[in-house]
Amino acid sequence: MRRFVIKALAVSCLGLAIAGPALAADPAKKEIVIGTTVGDFGDMVKQSIKPILEKQGYAVKLVEFTDYVRPNMALQEGALDVNVFQHKPYLDNFVKEHKLSLKEVFQVPTAPLGIYPGKLKSLKDVKEGSTISAPNDPSNFARALVMLSDLGWVKLKPGINPLTASERDIAQNVKKLKIVQLEAAQLPRSRNDVDFAVINGNYATSSGIKLTEAVFQEKSYAYVNWGVVRAADAGKPWARDVIAAYNSKAFSNWAKQKYAGYKFPQSWK
């Protein structure tokens, strides 16, 4: 009987030794602060990522932003540990412009940029002089121009970089569109004042707009969004735990049910 008890205890301890590391938080990091824009990315943290990390022993704090500038600055300054809101072309440009040391480490499900009806309800209703609202940050405005080019509403100069396209790169405004550039968060509300609105997917859904309402979605898969950390933190145990949470089966299964039709991380294929 004594030998049985000792054996059982040994097996139990071995099980704890095996399971322990998978559930143990980085002892050097008690709290992880994640910054996102309002909407899907914040919901992913609250409804799936936070519970996964809390099971490992971390305290998780979410900070939500309504712009595309403060999340990177807050991360660089140490107010955040991770941010989730941007695609790589935007990150690369922002890091270069502001001389930051940030690194993309995982992809996240991303609602694509779309053209949504405003005063006009169908693409065939477009006419000369139609008004289009679009994001005013350079990266997302370039995406909007590429979409308008795909539709044949504008023609871009040959040989331009589609990631950096600007109004100067419009060779011909075929439909003589009036393009109104606004802060991304204002675009859903602009639909009452324009014929069509080019809206970032996360701001569409956070405003109660269904992605299926879009009359056109961007074709490119280059703009799947990334989770970003300070470059110096990329290899730390807590960062690896965050990356593992976003790449976990638990999160991917949850996301595929909730966000059908989104563009998903390439690593999930």
The SS-based structural class is alpha/beta
Mean pLDDT: 90
Largest sheet: 5 strands, mixed
Count of alpha/pi helices? 8
Strand order of the largest sheet: 2-1-3-12-4
| Fraction of residues in helix | 25-40%
Shape: elongated
The overall strand count is 12
Strand residue percentage: 15-25%
Cα-based radius of gyration, to the nearest Å: 22 Å
In terms of per-residue confidence, which ranges show pLDDT below 50 for 5 or more consecutive residues?
1-22
List the helices and strands in order: HEHEHEHEEEHEEEEHEEHH
Task: Give the end-to-end Cα distance, rounded to a whole number of Å.
Answer: 51 Å
Explain this structure to me?
With about 270 residues, the protein is an alpha/beta fold. The chain is about 35% helix and about 20% strand. It has eight helices and twelve strands. Strands 2-1-3-12-4 form a five-stranded mixed sheet, sandwiched between helices. It has a five-stranded mixed sheet with strand order 9-6-10-5-11. Strands 7-8 form a two-stranded antiparallel sheet. Helix 2 (about 40-55) packs antiparallel against helix 8 (about 250-260).
Task: Give the secondary structure arrangement, pairings included.
Blueprint: H1 2-23, E1 31-37, H2 40-55, E2 59-65, H3 70-77, E3 82-87, H4 88-98, E4 102-107, E5 114-117, E6 131-135, H5 138-150, E7 155-156, E8 170-172, E9 178-182, E10 196-199, H6 201-206, E11 216-217, E12 225-230, H7 237-246, H8 249-258
Parallel strand pairs: 1-2, 1-3, 6-9, 6-10
Antiparallel strand pairs: 3-12, 4-12, 5-10, 5-11, 7-8
